[in-house]
């Protein structure tokens, strides 16, 4: 490394000096040392002396590759060095270039000429440098310019040049597909080479190409087959097996031919890598050949019993591939699989877990889940969540097809929530709600599980559980009519520790409380009245259910017949129990007297029948005291919902209080405004929420004349002219009640509510837009302190110890193919939507690959018309035909859906607003509002104007539903509004 | 592409050699190396040598104080890569004579050169130790 005697180079640090320096400064000041060296390097790089420059670049390359120093400033100097006559300098330059350049480095264009020159060099050692460099920095320009050189080198007499050229060709194909037309034939010729390394390189290239677009390479199958049979090089064999794994499924005749040689290799070879590749090829691509699969599984067994953890891992992996089509292979090795669940290696445990889950079927799902859940308790948090995750995903797969007993599954979900370390709250939440919507029969159990979760004050302290609690609260509110004890639910929803919840979930709690409240009020007001007239048919208190709600026969059945004892109990629910829970509550609340004072009396005064007046009044009191402080909450979602509830209470409370005690006979409760309001609200909440297909919205066409993007600002001027309307050109249903005190009361309230500045309203609107689903995702994570004992005490572990054996035993029992026992419970109906099945469209292959394979096909067809390629084309055609068919199928489905939707529009017009209320939680408030103003849009516009809410904030909501076909707004009705 | 990158890392987690066969920016490399090293170095001798990370499979093996980590795509044969790592170590052993971390530190260029002889563009092109070392020995003689 001695350069000419210039001062600079004389005292230049060599690379060794740099490394030694780095080692000296290892701990204290390596970064300052590096920056000092970088300054030196920058200076040295500008030197005219090549040797100095080379050393500087060498140091820089070192710093770049080990210390991640940015060396892009030296790109030009690297190019400069490649043109040095000295091999050593050239090497440094090329190494620097290949390590730091990439396809978009600008100066790589300057390299083109040098590369070309070096590629034609007579010195074959000099030749390898540009080849290596090219393979890492190639871009389309370089590839285009240098294709002739590569073409020439593909038949170089020097083998080690030739194989490098072969390896480089792959990059050329990728960057510049036209290179295929030039080089492909020579590439194929190299397959015939006697040198196994060259063949290896060629096969590697084809392996890469075939992994993207296997069909084009079918014509080369005979050549590959020859390699498979003749070659003795394991590297080559592994690669060629990979190619056949791709080609086999495309051409059955080919698969027939290759099975035997592959099995031969599997039997004879001593190299585990080759044996494993054979196994993998068989289990992925040749699964129809029983004997081959049999042999492969036997080999897998050898892997499994080996001490080497690597072989174990690979064996398990092979099993999980084969499990899709040959579950028996897993069952045969189940003992080992289950033992692996307690392996020391997390990767092996994970594979074993997947296999256990693969064995799950409807008959054994309960047992496997039980044992796995026991297993969860003794494993580390990470694996615990893995287990929970895979149990959850296996059970919900394909609309819970493996679940026969939903009551059991729902209780398992409840159990999971209480497992320590459980972090699957989001998924459990989703499934609880999903099951609630899809499976009607399981709702009573869901409500029970939900109640248990909501009522436990300790759970509120665990942030991982908040999602689940939100689902539980929603379930309790939504299906409150199935609850044994609504008042107890209400207390659970209002308990003081709910302040630990993030606001978004709090909002769900509040809304659920509203639903429970409405339900209680409704059954109070209406059952009293009916009882007064006919004391023996208490349960018919909701007669409207039967005729009007077409999609809800099951539930009306539930509520009106004896099948559900729980429901009847809600008329005479157990005062003792309530008392108990209340005492518990107040004891726990200990000094926190928000809830405590009210409830002790109602529980005492509860009679056998229903909610008495006293209990209802107390209920209202509890709600008021609990929600009072929240009315000033800074979180708009909470504040607004609370105010809605409080407003409703204000509306009905007075009437209930004033209502004379013993007048049922002479004065019908129906006449009360309050009962009218409550009835409407109850009707709204009664409407069943169902699963919504992902593509539902897209299928509804935009009605003619509806301009969704039109600016609605000018509506303000229109509305300014409208006074409180007397005619109701917009009335969408029959207006049920006279506008009396109730409405005006609400009016004033709305005014009050909407005082806040328009800034906050727009924020609110923004927020609504973003959180358009049923309920809101939490974004703010509150770190609240909680001094409660941890919610989840690990259970006693005595029963966990031998669960591995348990599992082994049970799989033994349950995996033997046996007849399904006659189930006592028939599997309930799970609602499925056709839209759910439509997956995301298959991604198109990259255009470049198309280009490559297109070029390959051209070359191959030009060379010799091999019949197999036509079969490839044929299959393509047929697949396109199939695609056409699918398309037609799709549109048919769509047509069917549209018809249904259209039919429904007519049938459901009456329930327009109810549907609106149901469809979106955020919109519910709007729907409510509309109801209370006798469905008159005009009034909505009017109020929005008066109260300063921007009309644009509401309009999208209205039009949203207009689009959904629920509300009949069209151009003419809008026009009707113009003065 | 078969092999995507080859790393040599010492026990302390410092990178001693890094060769990538696809372009990643410096930040991406640093992040990737950090994650992989943390994952692999935490594992013990009884655990298997394969780790899945992002869309790579990492095959690694420890020789004394040095970890050899090879990132491959999911199709690649893990056992073959283990053999490749062993071949690489044997080759270095033959050249340096009982290769150690320091040899690689001070002869990084040579190590890169050896890798270039063995792997090109992610494909293994040479598996004979003599062939791999021949040009390096020539160079040593020349200088």
Describe the structure in your own words.
The complex is a heterodimer of chains A (979) and B (143). The longest helix of chain A has 42 residues, at 867-908. In chain A, helix 7 packs antiparallel against helix 8. Chain A is built from 50 helices and no strands. In chain A, 66% of the residues lie in helices and 0% in strands. The N terminus and C terminus of chain A are likely disordered. Chain B has helices spanning 26-41, 78-96, 101-106, 108-118, 129-142, and strands at residues 3-10, 15-20, 50-53, 56-63, 66-72, 119-120, 123-124. Chain B contains five helices and seven strands, in the order E-E-H-E-E-E-H-H-H-E-E-H. In chain B, a hairpin with a 4-residue loop joins strand 1 and strand 2. In chain B, helix 2 packs parallel to helix 5 and helix 4 (108-118) crosses helix 5. The chains are: A mainly alpha (979), B alpha+beta (143). Chains A and B meet through helix 4, helix 6, helix 8, helix 10 and helix 12 of A and strand 2, helix 1, strand 3, helix 2 and helix 4 of B.
Tags for this model:
heterodimer; A: 979 residues; disordered C terminus; B: alpha+beta; two-stranded antiparallel ribbon; 5 helices
Strand and helix map with partners:
The complex is a heterodimer of chains A (979) and B (143).
Chain A: H1 7-10, H2 15-24, H3 30-45, H4 50-67, H5 75-82, H6 87-100, H7 108-119, H8 124-137, H9 140-153, H10 159-175, H11 179-189, H12 196-212, H13 221-230, H14 234-247, H15 252-268, H16 272-285, H17 290-305, H18 309-322, H19 327-332, H20 334-340, H21 346-358, H22 365-378, H23 381-400, H24 406-417, H25 425-438, H26 443-455, H27 466-478, H28 486-494, H29 503-533, H30 545-548, H31 553-560, H32 565-571, H33 575-589, H34 600-605, H35 613-627, H36 636-658, H37 673-686, H38 696-699, H39 715-720, H40 741-753, H41 758-770, H42 803-815, H43 834-837, H44 847-863, H45 867-908, H46 912-919, H47 921-932, H48 937-946, H49 951-963, H50 971-975
Chain B: E1 3-10, E2 15-20, H1 26-41, E3 50-53, E4 56-63, E5 66-72, H2 78-96, H3 101-106, H4 108-118, E6 119-120, E7 123-124, H5 129-142
């Amino acid at each position: 490394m001695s350069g000419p005697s210039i001062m600079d180079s004389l005292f230049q640090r060599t690379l060794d000096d740099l490394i030694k320096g780095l080692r000296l400064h290892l701990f204290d000041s390596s970064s300052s040392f590096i920056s000092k060296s970088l300054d030196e390097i920058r200076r040295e790089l500008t030197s005219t002396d090549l040797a100095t420059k080379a050393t500087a670049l060498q140091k820089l390359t070192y710093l770049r590759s080990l210390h991640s120093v940015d060396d892009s400033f030296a790109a030009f100097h690297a190019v400069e060095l490649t043109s040095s006559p000295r091999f050593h300098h050239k090497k440094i330059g090329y190494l620097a270039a290949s390590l730091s350049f990439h396809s978009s480095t600008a100066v790589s264009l300057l390299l083109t000429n040098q590369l070309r020159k070096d590629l034609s060099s007579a010195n074959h050692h000099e030749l390898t440098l540009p080849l290596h460099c090219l393979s890492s920095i190639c871009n389309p320009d370089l590839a285009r310019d240098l294709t002739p050189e590569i073409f020439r080198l593909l038949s170089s007499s020097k083998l080690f040049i030739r194989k490098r050229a072969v390896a480089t060709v792959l990059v050329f194909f990728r960057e510049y597909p036209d290179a295929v037309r030039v080089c492909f034939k020579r590439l194929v010729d190299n397959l015939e080479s006697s040198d196994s390394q060259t063949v290896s390189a060629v096969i590697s290239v084809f392996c890469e190409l075939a992994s993207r677009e296997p069909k084009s390479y079918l014509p080369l199958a005979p050549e590959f087959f020859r390699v498979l049979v003749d070659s003795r090089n394991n590297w080559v064999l592994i690669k060629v097996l990979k190619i056949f794994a791709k080609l086999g499924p495309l051409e059955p005749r080919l698969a027939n031919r290759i099975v035997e040689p592959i099995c031969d290799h599997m039997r004879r070879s001593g190299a585990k890598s080759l044996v494993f590749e054979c196994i993998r090829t068989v289990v992925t691509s040749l699964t129809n050949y029983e004997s081959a699969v049999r042999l492969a599984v036997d080999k897998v067994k050898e892997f499994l019993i080996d001490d080497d953890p690597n072989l174990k891992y690979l064996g398990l992996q092979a099993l999980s591939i084969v499990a899709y089509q040959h579950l028996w292979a897993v069952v045969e090795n189940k003992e080992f699989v289950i033992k692996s669940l307690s392996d020391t290696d997390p990767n092996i445990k994970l594979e074993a877990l997947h296999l256990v889950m693969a064995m799950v079927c409807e008959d054994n799902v309960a047992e496997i889940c039980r044992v796995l859940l026991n297993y969860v308790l003794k494993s580390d948090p990470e694996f615990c969540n893995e287990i929970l995750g895979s149990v959850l995903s296996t059970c919900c797969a394909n609309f819970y097809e493996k679940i026969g007993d939903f009551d059991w599954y729902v209780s398992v979900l409840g159990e999971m929530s209480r497992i320590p370390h459980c972090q699957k709250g989001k998924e459990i939440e989703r499934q609880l709600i999903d099951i609630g919507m899809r499976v009607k029969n399981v709702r009573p159990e869901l409500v029970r599980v939900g109640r248990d979760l909501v009522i436990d004050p300790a759970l509120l302290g665990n942030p991982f559980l908040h999602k689940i609690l939100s689902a539980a609260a929603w379930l309790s509110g939504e299906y409150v009519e199935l609850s044994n004890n609504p008042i107890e639910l209400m207390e659970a929803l209002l308990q003081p520790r709910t302040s630990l919840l993030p606001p978004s979930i709090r909002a769900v709690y509040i809304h659920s409380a509203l639903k429970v409240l409405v339900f209680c009020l409704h059954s109070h007001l209406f059952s009293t009245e009916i009882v007064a007239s006919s004391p023996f048919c208490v349960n018919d208190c909701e007669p409207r259910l039967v005729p009007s709600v077409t999609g809800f026969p099951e539930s009306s059945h539930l509520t009106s017949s004896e099948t559900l004892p729980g429901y009847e109990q809600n008329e005479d629910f157990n005062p003792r129990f309530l008392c108990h829970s209340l005492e518990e509550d107040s004891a726990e609340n200990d000094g926190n007297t928000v809830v405590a004072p009210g409830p002790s009396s109602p529980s005492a005064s509860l009679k056998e029948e229903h909610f008495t007046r006293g209990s209802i009044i107390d209920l209202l009191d509890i709600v008021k005291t609990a929600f009072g402080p929240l009315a000033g909450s800074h979180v708009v979602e909470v504040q607004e919902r609370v105010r809605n509830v409080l407003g409703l209470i204000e509306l009905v409370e007075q009437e209930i209080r004033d209502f004379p005690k013993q007048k049922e006979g002479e004065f019908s409760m129906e006449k009360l405004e309050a009962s009218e309001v409550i009835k409407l609200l109850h009707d709204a909440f009664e409407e069943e929420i169902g699963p919504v297909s992902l593509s539902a919205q897209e299928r509804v066409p935009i009605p003619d004349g509806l301009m969704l993007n039109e600016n609605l600002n000018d509506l303000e001027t229109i509305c300014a002219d409208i006074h409180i309307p007397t005619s109701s050109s917009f009335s969408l249903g029959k207006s049920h009640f006279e506008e009396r005190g109730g409405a005006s009361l609400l009016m004033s309230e709305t005014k009050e509510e909407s005082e806040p500045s328009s800034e906050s309203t727009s924020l609110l609107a923004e927020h609504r837009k973003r959180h358009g689903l049923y309920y809101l995702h939490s974004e703010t994570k509150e770190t609240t302190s909680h001094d409660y004992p941890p919610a989840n005490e690990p259970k006693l572990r005595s029963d966990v110890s031998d669960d591995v054996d348990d599992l082994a035993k049970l799989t033994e029992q349950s995996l033997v193919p046996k007849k399904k026992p006659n189930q006592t419970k028939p599997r309930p109906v799970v609602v499925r939507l056709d839209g759910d099945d439509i997956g995301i469209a298959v991604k198109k292959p990259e255009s470049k690959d198309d280009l490559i394979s297109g070029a390959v096909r051209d070359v191959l067809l030009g060379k010799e018309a091999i019949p197999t390629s036509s079969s490839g084309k044929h299959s393509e055609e047929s697949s396109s035909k199939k695609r056409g068919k699918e398309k037609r199928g799709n549109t048919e489905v769509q047509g069917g859906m549209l018809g249904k939707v259209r039919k429904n529009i007519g049938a459901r017009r009456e329930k327009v607003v109810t549907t609106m209320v149901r469809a979106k939680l955020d919109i519910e408030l709007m729907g409510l509002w509309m109801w209370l103003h006798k469905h008159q849009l005009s009034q909505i516009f009017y109020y929005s104007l008066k109260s300063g809410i921007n009309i644009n904030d509401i309009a999208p909501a209205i039009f949203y539903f207009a689009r959904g076909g629920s509300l009949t707004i069209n151009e003419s009705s809008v026009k009707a509004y113009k003065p | 592409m078969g092999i995507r990158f080859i790393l040599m890392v010492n026990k302390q987690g410092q990178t001693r050699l890094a060769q990538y066969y696809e372009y990643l920016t410096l930040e991406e490399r640093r992040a990737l190396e950090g994650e992989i090293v943390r994952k692999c170095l935490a594992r013990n001798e009884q655990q298997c040598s394969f780790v899945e990370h992002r869309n790579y499979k990492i095959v690694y093996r420890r020789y004394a104080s040095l970890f050899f980590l090879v990132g491959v795509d999911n199709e690649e044969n893990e056992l073959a890569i283990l053999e490749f790592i062993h071949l690489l170590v044997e080759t270095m052993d033959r050249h340096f004579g009982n290769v150690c971390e320091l040899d690689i530190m001070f002869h990084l260029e040579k190590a890169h050169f050896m890798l270039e002889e063995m792997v090109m563009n992610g494909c293994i092109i040479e598996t004979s130790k003599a062939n791999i070392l021949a040009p390096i020995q020539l160079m040593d003689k020349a200088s």
